[in-house]
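Anyone up for a design puzzle?
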């Protein structure tokens, strides 16, 4: 047995998931950030903290929780080397150490809870949504398969301001010791 296999076999399932990938195959709709912005505007999803595109999953998931829409999960993803958002609607548990049985197929439930909703409520064109499926090696499901309300707290001072204050404090201390 190779050292790599020996190491992997000594990991608990939780350690394996954190080190390698989550034990889910996920399926959902990938979209560009221009589509994400369109959805946020149409559904009046606030971006209270002026999140950059790669952080928009947080205000979207917060809004999903407020709307009690717990059947989808928003996640930043890069697909075909293009950054965007995935609205995950299907989850399949893959037992630790067992081979993955393959792609999830887009089903009627996915269309009902995600695609139709986006088309009807946010005026998204079907061609703006691409069904994708992958093993979650990006830790999308690290906090579970339902959206959670994460509150983003931005510091009142920049890192440079904090460093300048600390430097001044040290300078004053050194001068007082003379």
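Challenge accepted. My sequence:
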């Amino acid at each position: 047995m190779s050292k790599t296999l020996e190491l992997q076999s000594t990991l608990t399932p939780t350690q394996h998931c954190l080190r390698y990938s989550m034990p889910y195959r996920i399926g959902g709709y990938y979209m560009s950030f221009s589509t994400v912005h369109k959805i946020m505007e149409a559904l009046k999803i606030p971006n209270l903290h002026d999140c950059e595109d790669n952080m928009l999953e947080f205000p979207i998931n917060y809004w999903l929780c407020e709307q009690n829409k717990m059947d989808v999960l928003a996640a930043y993803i890069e697909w075909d080397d293009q950054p965007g958002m995935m609205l995950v609607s299907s989850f399949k548990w893959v037992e630790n150490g067992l081979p993955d049985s393959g792609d999830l197929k887009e089903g009627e439930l996915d269309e009902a809870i995600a695609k139709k909703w986006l088309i009807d409520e946010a005026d998204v064109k079907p061609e703006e949504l691409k069904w994708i499926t992958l093993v979650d090696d990006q830790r999308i499901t690290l906090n579970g398969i339902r959206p959670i309300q994460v509150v983003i707290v931005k510091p009142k001072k920049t890192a440079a301001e904090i460093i300048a204050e600390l430097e001044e404090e040290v300078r004053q201390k050194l001068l007082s010791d003379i």
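A detail worth pointing out: Residues 1 and 7 are 10 Å apart (CA to CA).
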